[in-house]
Fold:
Amino acid sequence: MATKKGERYWVGFDLGGTKMMAVVYDERFAPVSRARKKTKASEGAGVVLQRIAKLIKQCLDKADVAPQAVAGIGIGCPGPLDLDAGVIISAPNLGFSNVGIKAMLEKEFKCPVILANDVDIGLYGEYVAGGAQGSRCAVGLFPGTGLGGGCVYEGMIIRGRKNSCFEIGHIQVLPDGPLCGCGRRGCLEAVSSRLAVSAAAALAGMRGEAPNLVDAAGMDLQNIRSGALGTAIEAGDTVVEKIVREAARWIGVGVATAVNLMLPDIVVLGGGMVEAMPELILEEVSRSARSRVMPGFRDQYEVVTAKLGDDAGVRGAAAWAQTTVKGAKR
Amino acid sequence: MATKKGERYWVGFDLGGTKMMAVVYDERFAPVSRARKKTKASEGAGVVLQRIAKLIKQCLDKADVAPQAVAGIGIGCPGPLDLDAGVIISAPNLGFSNVGIKAMLEKEFKCPVILANDVDIGLYGEYVAGGAQGSRCAVGLFPGTGLGGGCVYEGMIIRGRKNSCFEIGHIQVLPDGPLCGCGRRGCLEAVSSRLAVSAAAALAGMRGEAPNLVDAAGMDLQNIRSGALGTAIEAGDTVVEKIVREAARWIGVGVATAVNLMLPDIVVLGGGMVEAMPELILEEVSRSARSRVMPGFRDQYEVVTAKLGDDAGVRGAAAWAQTTVKGAKR
Structure:
């Protein structure tokens, strides 16, 4: 496909711990080309930055889009980030600290580059084109290795002065509860992330209560992924189902807190665990949340699953770049 | 004082369960006159609406301001409210339901009337002229009979599609905790409102552990108000101090949740209990919150006490009316 004369393009980029992905969108946000490769974070920030630039160039070449036709690039990345400066302050998944990704890419591509939190832009993608489309206020919860959260309020991504926020995985839900990766106790993430679920399921496996899970994935947490959990439940491991429902019940506590505070129209649940067991998790989260929100709020929000899968991040990053560059919001 | 030619005025009105208050402000928001009287909610909505209109007229007369010089009236009121329609859907404190206060006052005064939640406009008052002045995002917690909460984000009062929100008193902080007035268990309000503190203090009095409190206020919850609690602590009732600190520790859990989600610059604590024991509560809330916020957020917010006292509501209502009428925000 050749660049149309005068047409402008937006690039969405999703920088993850293991892989990265670029998509070039036209002005109506139809995807024109896409490319992905491994991040290879262990090779260091300098090398990864070069790989990012190269992947964007490949993606533009594939679409036959000249760099001058790019109106802006949106990058989603784990944080903490300095949003305005466009600096990755530290990204434990990537082993990076103080990486000026915005400055580097702006120099390379001579267009505005917007850095945003990966969870926020995933939710923003769902807001512009997925499960949260048309909402006045949307809250997202994405249980995975951790539990990411975000909020889009009247078209803005809710943020701190410098950093992204809405760290719903780290609100305290159980005083003196289990230790969390962040060093504190009883965080929502500690009782409901996919890792917490996998650990509890492995324990059930050790006790001989999850034979199908052990057959399929063993007892190494690295192998007990969302798909394996879902398959084990279908095969009859009722204890695994109980464990997933217990995590979903806690996620519902987080949803209720978000609803009692922000009163969103839509709460989006996403990530691998939700994709693997959408009905089960949606049912349990909804029930748990409903019993904990203000009575008058019960019929004012809806809990839905994410619709865009892996594309949420790139779509959201590109759309957020447009929103930010056009200056309507930030 | 006579109306200056061409000068426009804003009226702030605070409608409470026991008393109501009106203040007329000039364009620079200097107060020009003020008036207050009892609400007499038991006489019914019709009578109260007439009393409201009469109090505003008295206040305008006192300032020698003609009704035509009023640019707008802001009314703060307990809810739930239909914010855009300006209807009090139900106000348990007042015994009202479906009262079209906006329509009535607009007909009477022929100027825009804005209805807002009393806690929200109290926080907005602190935002424009008190403890949260100049903040990008401010969260307020006002422990009293209940525990009210609000959030001002980049100049907007965070709200639901129809109703006010940020019901921080009703987030669950203690699974299977004490019953709350809302019918659920373990709400922040149930463990930290002034009423919860008064009940625990009366219990201590029964056990003979709070002699000074019992001397001064007896054991009737209606008489164990914030001032009595503060005086008992000063007189040496250490158990009462423990009880207040315990409530403050819980309020800190709520502050931490709000900070982990919204990452505000300023958290404002207000209401009678905070006014009576500002240092004690500020210290305990700050310590509790600090141990529960994301490590990277610890130095990005400040907890302060409210500065405007009873004036926060009227000041906030008048300023919010201006902001809304001028159409910059809603």
